[in-house]
Amino acid sequence: MSITQELAAYAPDVPTLLTIGVFDGVHVGHLSLLHRLKTEAAARGLMPGVITFAPHPAEVLNSATMPALLTSVDERIALLRAAGISLIVLLSFTPELSRLTAEEFVQPLITQLAKRGLILGPDFSLGRNKSGTIDSLQTLGASLGFTVSSVPPCTLDGKVVSSTAIRATLEDGQVDVAARMLGRWFSLTGPVTSTSKRGTGLGFPTANLDIPQGRALPRNGVYATIATIPTGRFGSVTNVGHRPTFGTAEHMIETHILDFGGHLYGATLTVAFIARLRDEVTFPDSESLKAQISRDLVAARNILGELK
């Protein structure tokens, strides 16, 4: 399907002011851009809209450079809607799309989406060989009748906020820093595939969270978390890793939900990572592990109690 055919399904009733990007994570930098988009659109009587892509362009152009994703496509769209964007255009990123020139890409935005302007992030480029820079798009806009402006980078503690920077903090286990960059706790959502019989045997039953390949994960270790299940939100402790004490090769995300005794198999579980408690450790025996888990639960309760 061509870009024109895809865009036709999203044709709005009023002219638009658009931004373009992957928006993985919909972090505070993205939110700053979206605020500018909404403010200017309101001042000009336009509809604010976001054009985003699936799959991630790197998956099509060079899979070796494909980053771990902070959000699924559904999560990304939900976060964009929560940010107040009603027009969200999800384009299929294909080799054919990547070969379009900047003019070939933006012309259908004018005809199908009644585009009157673009507001773009710093260092933005699009089109074949990334020829559609801010400067070249401004020149193109002057001839085709649309405006182009950009927003400066969003910084936190002197560092630019980006999806790449957030992935790096997660790789370091700094979920608190990632939360500040995201503007919310980093979370993972998926079905519960099983409950750990070994955890139950230790007196601490856990729910195993099924997360698709390619998602960004915090560094292996134990975390104070908040679990959201169909019946409510609970404090929890989550282990990310391989359970080295038992020689498990499979990488797992196991959550013990505090003060909960129900069954979760098949339910949807969301785990929000609040604070890192410790590294993954190999214990000499199960009794040593049980003692440490008890200490982890106390530490998690103390941390989570401060959030109330």
Structural commentary:
The protein has 308 residues and is an alpha/beta fold. The protein folds into two domains: 3-160, HUPs (Rossmann fold); 186-305, Elongation Factor Tu (Ef-tu), domain 3 (Beta Barrel), CATH 2.40.30. It has eleven helices and 15 strands. The chain has helices at residues 3-8, 28-44, 57-61, 73-82, 95-98, 102-113, 134-144, 163-171, 175-182, 197-202, 286-305, and strands at residues 16-20, 47-54, 87-92, 115-120, 125-126, 132-133, 147-150, 155-156, 159-160, 187-195, 207-209, 221-229, 232-241, 252-257, 268-278. The chain has a six-stranded antiparallel β-barrel. The chain has a five-stranded parallel β-sheet with strand order 3-2-1-4-7. Strand 12 (221-229) and strand 13 (232-241) form a beta hairpin. Helix 8 packs antiparallel against helix 9. The longest helix is centred in the C-terminal third of the chain and has 20 residues, at 286-305. It is elongated. The termini are far apart.
Main sheet characteristics? 6 strands, antiparallel, barrel
Number of helices: 11
Helix content: 25-40%
Task: Please give the alpha-carbon distance between the first and last residues.
Answer: 50 Å
Beta-strand proportion: 25-35%
Assembly state: single chain
